[in-house]
């Protein structure tokens, strides 16, 4: 009889209460609660403590969580996979849009940088008009549209920056975020004397947060190859790698002695390995050129290698 009553009460319970057996307790009582109150129909053993069911849901949200779980379980798994794939597609599209809107599709500047007298302004003139020009130390920037020698007819903005120590930082700051490529001009004839200064400038350039993030192509133009004493691009690359390896150690040590940590400035190349240009995030190319040309002022410049590089940007 008692068993009938219990069976009957279970039959009329809501589904979620039957499922939520974790919330069920057996307590001594003559009545049971399961949302509806049920009298003990036996009427016997009044003095005895009969064990009956008391359904208690301790968490008030449990019914809702349970019904949500039920709904998810009832769904077709193909439908759920479809929803996940659609969400992933939306996220990936947003990431790609952000990347392409801020990437080099909007960066069209080709910067000519380097120490004083390395030949930037003469290269600027040769690239734009092919003509030789007598130059003076630049005190401001010059820019002009440059049509690359490729089938796409790409047009970049060629910008000649002053090389003087006191002017360099401000002009670099002004144009660095627009750089699609950086042509770093080196005077190969007096490179041995300037190696430390060249490496320091290159180090500052490459550890710059904006340049490192945008990773514009780096072309190291080893200029003045018409002079007999000029060093080859291979030797210049090797010596710069050696010098920058040393600089990396001294700069890191200087930073850590200032504030106790090596933070702030970016670490150049791979930790635990000797510095090589191939470790940088951007494409790096070393090439030889002569803005003057071996036939002097009346002849043509020897800049085909540089023109080819600019055509590939
Ligand atoms: N022999 C030789 N001389 C060159 C070459 N390129 C430039 N020069 C000379 O080097 C000197 C300096 O050239 P610029 O083009 O003015 O140098 P720059 O890098 O613009 O110098 P700043 O404006 O001071 O930063 C000039 O007398 C040029 O004629 C080259 O390929 N060979
Ligand atoms: Mg100049």
From TrEMBL:
Q: What GO terms are given for molecular function?
A: GTP binding
Report the CDD domains cross-referenced here. SR_beta
- Which Gene Ontology CC terms are recorded? endoplasmic reticulum membrane
For this UniProt entry, which residues form the secretion signal? Answer: none
Matching Pfam families: SRPRB
Q: What InterPro entries does the record point to?
A: P-loop_NTPase, Small_GTPase_ARF, SRP_receptor_beta_su
What does the UniProt entry say about where the protein is found? Endoplasmic reticulum membrane
Q: How does it sit in the membrane?
A: Single-pass membrane protein
Transmembrane spans: 78-101
The source's domain of life comes to: Eukaryota
The similarity comment for this entry is: Belongs to the SRP receptor beta subunit family.
What name has this protein been given in UniProt? Signal recognition particle receptor subunit beta
The organism that produces this protein has a lineage beginning with:
Eukaryota, Metazoa, Chordata, Craniata, Vertebrata
């Amino acid at each position: 009889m008692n068993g009938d009553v219990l069976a009957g009460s279970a039959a009329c319970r809501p589904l979620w209460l039957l499922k939520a057996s974790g919330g069920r307790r057996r307590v001594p009582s003559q009545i049971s609660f399961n949302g509806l109150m049920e009298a003990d129909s036996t009427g016997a053993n009044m003095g005895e403590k009969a064990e009956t069911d008391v359904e208690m849901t301790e968490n008030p949200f449990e019914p809702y969580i349970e019904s949500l779980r039920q709904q998810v379980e009832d769904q077709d798994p193909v439908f759920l996979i479809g929803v996940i794939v659609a969400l992933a597609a939306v996220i990936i599209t947003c990431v790609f849009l952000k990347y392409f809107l801020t990437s080099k599709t909007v960066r069209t500047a080709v910067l000519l940088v380097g120490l004083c007298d390395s030949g930037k302004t003469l290269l600027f003139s040769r690239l734009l008009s092919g003509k030789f020009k007598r130059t003076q130390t630049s005190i401001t920037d010059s820019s002009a549209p440059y049509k690359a020698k490729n089938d796409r007819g790409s047009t970049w903005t060629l910008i000649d920056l002053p090389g003087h120590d006191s002017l360099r930082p401000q002009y670099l700051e002004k144009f660095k975020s627009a750089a699609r490529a950086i042509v770093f001009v080196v005077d190969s004839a007096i490179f041995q004397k300037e190696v430390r200064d060249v490496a320091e400038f290159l180090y500052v350039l490459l550890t710059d947060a904006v340049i490192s993030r945008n990773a514009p192509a780096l072309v190291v133009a080893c200029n003045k190859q018409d002079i007999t004493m000029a060093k080859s691009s291979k030797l210049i690359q090797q010596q710069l790698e050696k010098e920058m390896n040393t600089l990396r150690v001294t700069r890191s040590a200087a930073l850590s002695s200032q504030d106790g940590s090596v933070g702030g400035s970016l670490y150049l190349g791979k930790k635990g390995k000797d510095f090589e240009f191939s470790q940088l995030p951007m494409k790096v190319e070393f090439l030889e050129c002569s803005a003057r040309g071996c036939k002097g002022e009346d002849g043509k410049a020897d800049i085909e290698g540089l023109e080819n590089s600019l055509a590939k940007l």
